Each structure stands twice: as structure tokens, then as C-alpha cells.
Amino acid sequence: MSFLVIVESPSKAKTLKKYLGADYEILASYGHVRDLVPKTGAVDTDNQFAMKYQLIERNEKHVDAIVRAAKKADRILLATDPDREGEAIAWHLAEILREKKITPKKPIARIEFHEITQSAIQHAVDHPREIAMPLVDAQQARRVLDYLVGFNLSPLLWRKISPGLSAGRVQSPALRLIVERELEIEKFQAREYWTIHLDSHKGRQAFSARLVQYQGEKLDQFSIATGEAQQAVLDALTNAKTGNVTRVEKKRKSRSAAAPFTTSTLQQEAVRKLGMTTERAMRTAQQLYEGIDIGGGAVGLISYMRTDSVNLAREAIEDVRAYIGKNFAADYLPNAPVYFRNKSKNAQEAHEAIRPTAISRTPESVRKFLTIDQARLYEMIWKRTLACQMSPAQFDTVSLDIAVGGPANLFRATGQTLVFPGFIAVYQENQDDEESEEEAKLPVLSEGETVPVDRLSGEQHFTQPPPRYTEASLVKTLEEYGIGRPSTYASIISTLQDREYAVLDKKRFMPTPIGRLVNCFLTTHFTHYVDYDFTAKLEDRLDDVSNGTLKYIPLLDDFWQEFSGTLAAKADVERGCPIPDEPCPKCGARLFLQASKRGLFVGCSAYPGCDYTRPLHGGNEDGPTVLGQDPDSGQDILLLNGRYGWYVQIGATPEDKKLKPRRASWPKTLPAEHADLPTALKLLSLPREVGMHPDTQLPIIANIGRFGPYLQHDGKFKSLPKADDVYSIDLARALDVLAMAKEPRGGAPAGKPLGNHPEDGKPVTLHNGQYGWYVKHGKVNATLPKDADPAACTLEEALSLLAARAAKGPVTRKKPAAKTKAKPKTPARRTKAAA
């Protein structure tokens, strides 16, 4: 008997050929084969939402090949992806073959597998099924909803805002998230606050503590709100020479591994850890799923990558636990399997989590067959899967209070030490594997013990606005709100960028002016349809269709009855978006935010009777404002309003975009209407070099940033106290300010600079870590010999140690002593597989 197997992609077809015999011909549909006719009337809302389909032109030749092969085959197997989209493709293929009168004369069946392995394929072939019509109905309902919104709302945007715009059922709520975050940032006003720190030591070990109680009052974030207030505290404590330890609290804490990957968490980690886009991550995961030739033919390396599930199959868990038992000490393997509960708001389709198809297929064993992206993503999936079945990490934490200047003034110090790595030996969520789990180590202290007051200092801080969304945080928020589904996150993000509604600035989303206007129009006139809860509830109802508990026609009918009424009511709304509480100064009518070829502007709703207009942010509507002339070049100093706000510039913008005139952002704390030449010249003088640091021979730079004036040196930043002037601070004062800068909490100290590496010019530094002294260059660490004097370590000695360390290859870690008498085994960190 001859079989025709139809899959979605040619690479998947190639992999399946390895597992199926000569009786099986495998062809690819190259994705979807039919779609709604791209014009009005594709969905007949008066006739049970009947749909008019047409072949997708680019896939016509592939459909023809499938039809020819189907005529020759004895049986047809539809092996498209195991989700709504795959089920719909299978149904469309079956419909095409029925229209060609090939079926039902020839038997046709659906087969489903979640990984491309010999056992999974054979099981699918042995257990064919009917096409799951509830899944098909859910996909069609989703497609109809998208059509009804897009084909009816987009033309309204063309008429009321600008031609070529679009609105989408899911993309519009996502745009609203980005715009509302930007509005939060714009409304944010930074608040100043100060923290007071105690530097002390015991023996040779220094430590730091922070003031948490002053004069018997517990301090909150803004208790010390000004430089004057912090100075008053320091003055009150200035005579204190010692502190008394009043409390010591020690605890053992544990941290469990994260669940194996879902589509959403895979995308988030790929963005954070690997620097990929969500689209690139999904494309790479698709390649790993469909099969890679690793010698001897193509093999599917991971399970299906579109899933909400955090569950692993029993056989997969057994394989992972067996691998841990073979390659790790006994205490790395929990007594029982670890199970996870799905936290997704709208978890659907009972797939497995994303995992390797064989845990024994280590990243190192397949690396040479993979591209860089494939290797990095596979390693991350492999490590996460392994880690999820390992023992929790164990930490010793200590917290102590020190009274200074009396029992009413308490400083608190905290420390944390990793005592058993557990799953951290393999994988850490949300941070690079090279980063330390250590916090500042504290000396052993007891209640009643006295410690010296080496120094008391204040540190200035400013509250920060909520950050703009990254791809990772946007995906996380979409999932939390129930907007879209895992398979749609990447396309939502790419659509917003393709439509130029949002741009990535320093890997964070910023809405464009047209994106803000579209969002303003939709939230004003179609509030219900960009509401987060409405979008999520609609997804819930689509899930009900998938589960067979709801018919899709009533769902569509409910939506269309309300949506069509809203469309009719909004057909004659005025152009643009109304600006509340601001009447036209010329005639008193309402002002509207509108779009033109030159960008956004504010215009009067009484146009053409009233011709009042102004730029979006006020100012000179005829162009840039000339503040005066630059005394050095004689060119005009201009005040302009750009994509990211007001700025000043020397001279006109040249036609050659490669030539960049000198510019400086206008501080948001200064109203642009008060701009003058002296302030502009000061801003344009920045950044300025204060001088060279005598220890590092690196420049100290003074500048003004988003949160005020600061100093920059050797990649580190320190806010300038209010008493200092960024334009006049000298080298001596800059050195004093930098000396007050504290080492970052929660990480390794910056280290003593020994000099720069001769090959790349990057610094070589000396550190004191958990296991002793070591030198560091980039990501390479080299331990000092036990008999070496750290104080006498030179750059030449450090370079020699680093070269020897680099020659040994990837970093290895010693395992802690086993807590049982089990035969010692090597942790995965010591194997090439886990390196």
C-alpha cells in the first residue's frame, strides 16, 4: 500500500523520510494553502458568516503537486502541526482534495505527533484520527474576527487619520500597552532621596550597612529626602567611633528551579539571555523541532515549540532523572519527580513543555552540526529541562543590626552565601550563567560585639519611571493579560514594528507619533475593543470553541452585532483625536490631534472656518527657533522638537545624513518655552572631560542624563550632589565624589585594577572571592596560587595566570561533598555537555 504524508515544511518532510519506509511519499504544503479572499465580502455576515476562500498564490504549485501525488496514493495522512493552525491547514487540504473528487474515494486521516522521533512518528501512524473540527472552528472564528476588525476599522482610520493605517483585534491592545507605558513615563516626576551607609570591618574583612532606623523611627524610602537632611544625620552621628551589634539572624533558604519552557518563557529567555528577537527565537526553535542533520540523517532535536504547558511526559521525566543520577552526586537528584502547575491565564492545548527529544543528546555532542543560534537555543532548552528535575539551591543568609550613636539608630547589613548549588550548577533563570549568586559576605559577628565606624556617608538617589517594554517584558505582559496566544506573540510584535506604530530604542519599545495617534483614536471611539479584559474574554471564548463547549457562530454573531453598531455610530466622527480641556484659542471650538505628511499637529475642529494649528508640543509652528549664534563657529543655535522631545543644535541639519551636527537634549525639567542662548550653550558644552583619573588613567566625564547631572568613569556612573555644578566641577572634587560611590550590591566587587590587557585593551582586575583571590579579564577568571601575596600581584603575573586558565578551555566547578555515602559522581558543570 502506498501512502501520501502531507506536512507543513520541507525540512520536516526531510526528517520524516528517515523514519518512514519507501511506501511513504512525503510532501510539504509550505504553510497555509488557502485564506479568505482579501476584499470586502469575504465573510458574509448575513449568512451564518459564510467564508469565501481562495488558494494562496505562492503555494499553488505545491498544492498541485499534492493533488497529483494524492491521485496515485492508496491512503492520505495529514501530518500538519498539532495546534489550531495545523488542524485548519489539514482541514483545508482535505477540502481541496474533496473538491478534486479524490476523497472520499481514498481514505484520508489525521495523524498527530509532538516530537519528530521514530517512536512518536510510528505511534502517530498506528493511531490515526479524524480532523478535530472544534479546533478548526476555533481557528476559523479567530480568522473571521481578525477580518471583521481589520476590514472595517482600518478604512475608518484611513478616513479619519491617514491612508494606509491598520487596526487589529490583538495588535491594538498591545499598542495600547506600549503607549500607556510611555504616558506613565512622561508624567513621571523623579523624587530625590538619600541613603546613609556605614563602612566597618572585622579583622581584614570589610562590610557595609545601611541606616534603617533613626532616632527610634523606622526609615522609609523618602525619610531622608534632601542633601541637607542627609547632612544633618551625618552631623548627628559624626562623633560615633564604634557600633554595637544588637541583632544577628541566620537562616537557610532554598530556591527551586523554574518550570521547563513554554512558548512564552522560551521567547522571554531568548530575548534576555541570548539577545534574540522573539521572531528569531521562534524561527530557530522551528528548525530544531523540524529536524537537523547531526550525522546519519535529520533528527528532531526538541518537542513542539508552540505550547502553554509546563508538563513533561512521564518517560521524559524518567530519562532526565536517570541522566542526573548518572552524572551528578546523589544530593542533586530529588527523591521524587518534580511537577509544575501551569500559571498561564488561558492555558490551552495539552502539549508537553518544550524539551529535548533525548536528554542524552547533549549540547556539546550536537554543537558542530548546528548554527550558532541553533546551538545556543538548544543548549538553553537542554539546560532548563535538566535543571527542572534537580534539587533546589541552598543559601545561608545572615542579617544583622548595628546601633551607632545609641540604640535608636540602627544600621542593617545582609549577606548571602551559596552553600549547595543544586539546579544552579546547570541553569539560572533571568541571568547569565557567569553571574554570581553571592551577595556581600559578612564577617562572623555576635550580638553585643563592637565594630569600628570606619566611615559614614550619604548616597543620593532618584526614583525612576517605569521602564519601557522590552520584547521579553511585553510578551510576559501579553500573557498575563491573556492577549493573544503563544503562537501569536512574535507576529504581534513584528506587526507593530512593520506598521511603524512602535520602534525599538535601546531594545525597548517606544511608540511613534502615528502609533500614539492611532491608539488615541481607538481608545476614544472603540474603547471596548482595545480593553484588555474584553480581549482576554474573547480568547477564553475561542478556547471554549476549541474544547467543543461553544459553537463559533453564536460567538461571531454576538461580536458582530455590537461591533457593527459601534462602527455605524462612529462613521461621522471628526478627524483625529480630541484633546480634552483645551479649547481653540482662536474660536473656542475643540482642538484635535491630527496627522500630516510632516507629522502630528494640533488643529481646530472648526476647520476650514478656523485655521488655527500648532505643533504637537507647542512652540514655533513655522520651524526651529533660533536662540542666538555659537560664539566659536558663528552658526545659529536652534531649538527643535524631534521624535524624542526637545533638543538644541548647532547649525541647520545637513542633507547628508552621515554628517551629524552637535546636539544636546533639552532637560524635561526646563520648559522649552523658556529656552535661551546661555542655557543652550551650556548644554552643548556637555559631555565635558573633567580630567584623567590618577589611578586608572581613564577620563572622568561630566554630563547630564535622564535623572540629572552625573560623573562617568571606567563604565560606572555617580550622580552629582546638588551642591556641585556639572559645568564647573574640577578634578579634585570629581575624585572626592567618585570615592563616595559604593560597590554594587548583590554582585562581586569591582576589583583592583592591575592594568589593561595588551591584546584588547580591556582591564585586568584583582578580586577577593568566595574561594580566595583571583584575577579577571572579561569572562576569564584565574585563581592566584595559595602562597601568593595578593598585594604584590603584578599585571605580568596576572596575564600569565589568565593565559594558562584560558588554555584549559571552559570553566569548570568543583562539586560540593556528597551528603550521602553514594558513589561520588561528577556534576554536569564538570562535563563538556553542561559547560
From TrEMBL:
<keyword id="KW-0460">Magnesium</keyword>
<keyword id="KW-0479">Metal-binding</keyword>
<dbReference type="Pfam" id="PF13368">
    <property type="entry name" value="Toprim_C_rpt"/>
</dbReference>
<keyword id="KW-0799">Topoisomerase</keyword>
<feature type="domain" description="Toprim">
    <location>
        <begin position="2"/>
        <end position="117"/>
    </location>
</feature>
<dbReference type="InterPro" id="IPR005733">
    <property type="entry name" value="TopoI_bac-type"/>
</dbReference>
<dbReference type="InterPro" id="IPR028612">
    <property type="entry name" value="Topoisom_1_IA"/>
</dbReference>
<feature type="site" description="Interaction with DNA">
    <location>
        <position position="146"/>
    </location>
</feature>
<feature type="domain" description="Topo IA-type catalytic">
    <location>
        <begin position="132"/>
        <end position="567"/>
    </location>
</feature>
<dbReference type="InterPro" id="IPR013498">
    <property type="entry name" value="Topo_IA_Znf"/>
</dbReference>
<comment type="similarity">
    <text>Belongs to the type IA topoisomerase family.</text>
</comment>
<feature type="region of interest" description="Interaction with DNA">
    <location>
        <begin position="166"/>
        <end position="171"/>
    </location>
</feature>
<dbReference type="Pfam" id="PF01751">
    <property type="entry name" value="Toprim"/>
</dbReference>
<feature type="site" description="Interaction with DNA">
    <location>
        <position position="32"/>
    </location>
</feature>
<dbReference type="InterPro" id="IPR013825">
    <property type="entry name" value="Topo_IA_cen_sub2"/>
</dbReference>
<feature type="active site" description="O-(5'-phospho-DNA)-tyrosine intermediate">
    <location>
        <position position="304"/>
    </location>
</feature>
<dbReference type="GO" id="GO:0006265">
    <property type="term" value="P:DNA topological change"/>
</dbReference>
<dbReference type="InterPro" id="IPR034149">
    <property type="entry name" value="TOPRIM_TopoI"/>
</dbReference>
<feature type="compositionally biased region" description="Basic residues">
    <location>
        <begin position="811"/>
        <end position="835"/>
    </location>
</feature>
<protein>
    <recommendedName>
        <fullName>DNA topoisomerase 1</fullName>
        <ecNumber>5.6.2.1</ecNumber>
    </recommendedName>
</protein>
<dbReference type="InterPro" id="IPR006171">
    <property type="entry name" value="TOPRIM_dom"/>
</dbReference>
<comment type="function">
    <text>Releases the supercoiling and torsional tension of DNA, which is introduced during the DNA replication and transcription, by transiently cleaving and rejoining one strand of the DNA duplex. Introduces a single-strand break via transesterification at a target site in duplex DNA. The scissile phosphodiester is attacked by the catalytic tyrosine of the enzyme, resulting in the formation of a DNA-(5'-phosphotyrosyl)-enzyme intermediate and the expulsion of a 3'-OH DNA strand. The free DNA strand then undergoes passage around the unbroken strand, thus removing DNA supercoils.</text>
</comment>
<dbReference type="InterPro" id="IPR013824">
    <property type="entry name" value="Topo_IA_cen_sub1"/>
</dbReference>
<keyword id="KW-0413">Isomerase</keyword>
<dbReference type="Pfam" id="PF01396">
    <property type="entry name" value="Zn_ribbon_Top1"/>
</dbReference>
<dbReference type="GO" id="GO:0005694">
    <property type="term" value="C:chromosome"/>
</dbReference>
<feature type="site" description="Interaction with DNA">
    <location>
        <position position="158"/>
    </location>
</feature>
<dbReference type="GO" id="GO:0003677">
    <property type="term" value="F:DNA binding"/>
</dbReference>
<dbReference type="InterPro" id="IPR003602">
    <property type="entry name" value="Topo_IA_DNA-bd_dom"/>
</dbReference>
<dbReference type="InterPro" id="IPR000380">
    <property type="entry name" value="Topo_IA"/>
</dbReference>
<dbReference type="InterPro" id="IPR023406">
    <property type="entry name" value="Topo_IA_AS"/>
</dbReference>
<keyword id="KW-0863">Zinc-finger</keyword>
<feature type="site" description="Interaction with DNA">
    <location>
        <position position="499"/>
    </location>
</feature>
<dbReference type="InterPro" id="IPR023405">
    <property type="entry name" value="Topo_IA_core_domain"/>
</dbReference>
<feature type="site" description="Interaction with DNA">
    <location>
        <position position="142"/>
    </location>
</feature>
<dbReference type="InterPro" id="IPR003601">
    <property type="entry name" value="Topo_IA_2"/>
</dbReference>
<dbReference type="InterPro" id="IPR013826">
    <property type="entry name" value="Topo_IA_cen_sub3"/>
</dbReference>
<comment type="subunit">
    <text>Monomer.</text>
</comment>
<dbReference type="Pfam" id="PF01131">
    <property type="entry name" value="Topoisom_bac"/>
</dbReference>
<keyword id="KW-0238">DNA-binding</keyword>
<feature type="region of interest" description="Disordered">
    <location>
        <begin position="807"/>
        <end position="835"/>
    </location>
</feature>
<dbReference type="InterPro" id="IPR025589">
    <property type="entry name" value="Toprim_C_rpt"/>
</dbReference>
